[in-house]
Amino acid sequence: MGCSSSVIAIDLVNHLFQTYMNSFAIVMSSESLCPNWYQGKVRSMILPNVIFRLGGCSLLLTNKSSLKHRAMLKLNHSVRTHAGSRDEAYESCMRIEDEQGNLGFFLSKNIPKAAAKTVAMNL
């Protein structure tokens, strides 16, 4: 699911907690686990080798009011916005093949602009 998987999982847990009281949930997320290592020479496609290979996290979430004093964080509000219908956002990160036939992720220079528009939609 890519970068949005953690956000989607947290939102799902938030909705489940509205139905199931005094519950626990574990959300685990890691970066790319599939063979997406790019071996070519196109610089904009080499960068994801570093960016998408380093992360991972796990969270234990609960809606038990008796554990409120032990919580490190509190989720006040969650918002999900899908901007993939805009060409600028959709084409900012794509898996393509280079001239030598190597598959990799292409990151365009439109990523900051597309991200800023998406954040502005949530305000």
TrEMBL record:
Q: Which Pfam families match?
A: FAE1_CUT1_RppA
Domain of life of the organism in this record? Answer: Eukaryota
Presence of the UniProt keyword Nucleotide-binding in the record:
no
- Ranges for domain FAE come to 1-123
Q: What is this enzyme's catalytic activity, as reactions?
A: a very-long-chain acyl-CoA + malonyl-CoA + H(+) = a very-long-chain 3-oxoacyl-CoA + CO2 + CoA
Question: Has keyword Transferase?
Answer: yes
Q: Which UniProt keywords apply?
A: Acyltransferase, Transferase
PANTHER family given in the database record: 3-KETOACYL-COA SYNTHASE
Protein name per UniProt: FAE domain-containing protein
Q: Which organism is it from?
A: Hibiscus sabdariffa (roselle)
